[in-house]
Amino acid sequence: MKKIAYFLFLLLFFTSCKSAFSVSEKKILYSEADSPAKVLKITNKKDSLILRTSSKNIKNIKNEDLSQLVKKLYLTMVTEDGVGIAAPQIGINRNVFLFYRLDQDEKSVEVAINPRIISHSKELICFQNDGCLSVPGKYGNSKRYSWIKVKYIDQNGKKVKQKFYGGTRSGDYTGIIFQHEFDHINGKLYIDKICN
Ligand SMILES: [Zn+2]
């Protein structure tokens, strides 16, 4: 019995170790904690490697490092005038991003933790003038689903299931922002999906 308890303790210990943020991640989060982070750019070789890496799920969502990550992402997105930002863009390969809910009147910023796209339209559209904070000075049209059904955990730790749509920049394109940010956590960029 004691052996089982010890084993369980070890298992718990290592699971929690796995979920903790690394020393280098904490450096990004807490050096100048109240300032925006540097946005990684595809034009820099070292940045590019991080941007092209698939991210890991957050295991412990009641984690103060996660709150700091969200704060840092928010400050950076607002400063850079983006409509979304993903953790890898500030050098943290974790499955977290922020996106604007353009489908809502107040157009609030939402946090997506461990997001998944559970289904999508068969149809693909060519979204005009996609752009990315990590691809400086460029815009291009990208292939996107016209709607997606998604699951994620929000900033309050609540499980959310939603359908988002996307079409043109003049209307609600929350679904496109979500797809763009979802690509980031999978190491993909809009320049991989160019259409005419
Ligand atoms: Zn981007």
Automatic annotation (TrEMBL):
Fe cation binds at residues 132, 180, 184. Binds 1 Fe(2+) ion. GO terms for molecular function: metal ion binding; peptide deformylase activity. The active site is at 181. It comes from the Bacteria. GO terms for biological process: translation. Residues 1-20 form the signal peptide. Its cofactor is Fe(2+). Its EC number is 3.5.1.88. Keywords: Hydrolase, Iron, Metal-binding, Protein biosynthesis, Signal. InterPro entries: Peptide_deformylase, Peptide_deformylase_sf. SUPFAM superfamilies: Peptide deformylase. It holds the Pfam family Pep_deformylase. Removes the formyl group from the N-terminal Met of newly synthesized proteins. Requires at least a dipeptide for an efficient rate of reaction. N-terminal L-methionine is a prerequisite for activity but the enzyme has broad specificity at other positions. Belongs to the polypeptide deformylase family. HAMAP family: Pep_deformylase. This is Peptide deformylase.
